[in-house]
Design brief:
204 residues; mainly beta; seven-stranded antiparallel beta sheet; globular
Length: 204
């Protein structure tokens, strides 16, 4: 004969298991409100076409790539860069008078590092044009590069997108091809919530 205590214990275990399954069904993953898009457009030397980026699809240009070939007594210097438009900003090193138009170099973010208002040493948020990668062709026939994209790795740069007088943190991912002399915008994302951070490379 089965004792009442045994039956009660069995029923209690079944009830607890049912509760656990129920809780699993109702638990929803917490996701951030991120807008993400794959791009794939390139800007190449000798091609007048530049990448025009309307990051929030409101019909207003937010970022524009550029290429500039500047010559001096040392040789030719080919700049690939990006210019925020309007109140938009990008994270860069400070202006440097040793370069064309005193441009600084755009800073790379470590994958999944937080992008917010914080800045490390020698970093600024700027609305000015800045350099992604720079190729030097010197008069002695030597060629060398500057900037984080020089290693032909995928690099993430931080942006502060202005929308309706609010700032949205985001990122752009670029890659440089030395043989083709092209910079490609791979993809980008930004947080739809104003003033909220985003992780570098975060897609959702």
């Amino acid at each position: 004969m089965i004792k009442f205590g045994t039956i009660f214990s069995v029923l209690l275990c079944i009830g607890l298991l049912a509760c656990e399954k129920n809780e699993d069904i109702h638990i929803q993953p917490i996701t951030d409100n991120i807008y993400y898009k794959v791009d794939g457009r390139s800007v190449c030397t000798g091609n007048p076409e530049q990448i025009e980026l309307d990051i929030n699809n409101d019909g207003i240009l937010d970022y524009l790539t550029f290429t500039v070939l500047y010559a001096d007594e040392d040789g030719d210097h080919l700049y690939f860069g990006i210019k925020p438009i309007g109140n938009n900003m990008i994270k860069s090193s400070p202006p440097n008078e040793n370069y064309y138009l005193d441009m600084g170099f755009i800073q790379s973010e470590t994958f999944l590092d937080l992008i917010n208002c914080d800045l490390k040493k020698d970093q600024i948020w700027t609305p000015g044009r800045n350099t992604l990668v720079l190729r030097h062709s010197e008069s002695n026939c030597s060629i060398w590069y500057e900037g984080n994209l020089q290693y032909e790795t995928e690099e993430i740069v931080a942006i502060k997108h202005s929308n309706d007088q609010a700032s949205h943190y985001g990122w752009l991912r670029f890659k440089f091809d030395k043989n083709k002399e092209c910079v490609t915008l791979i993809d980008y994302a930004y947080n739809l919530e104003p003033e909220e951070p985003i992780k570098a490379g975060q897609k959702n």
